[in-house]
# Entry
Amino acid sequence: MIEQAKSRESSDARVQMLLDRLEIHDLVTRYYCAADQRDFDAFLSCFVPGTLVDYSEVLPVSSAHPVEKVTAVIEAAMAAAFSNTQHFMGNHSVTIDGDVARGETYCLAIHQYIDPSQDQDQRPASALRYIDRFVRGDDGWRIEHRRVTRDVGMFFASRTASVSQVE
# Structure
């Protein structure tokens, strides 16, 4: 009986770990989707209010600003410069310890300028890493601290899609 109880506890803990990892993965995905959809209320809901973030490698901000201020900078920059963005989440690792987790997520961010003459047939892109600390609260997992690094900045050639008919 004791071994069965321990096995059940161990199984329950593994299931909870998987659920936590999935919730954190969904949180990070919601963040990227909210940015691309310009839904800055949803964007902010991914963070604990007042979270200090370091976006200094990708934005003209210092290294420790509250997320609310950085969100306003991101929103203004996107509105002024970019018609579309796409953030693709890649490698994602998470280590969970109770109600706290640490994670690192790779991201490829591609942007399209509003003014087509500005891009000179190029699309700016960045290979980024988001280094996060997450906390679980009453409303689920949220980002409690974030640092963004840009590992590679590049440009992709734009392409005018042509429509061909299939016969």
Observations:
- Residues 2-36 form the longest helix (35 residues).
- Strands lie at 47-54, 65-66, 82-97, 100-113, 122-137, 140-157.
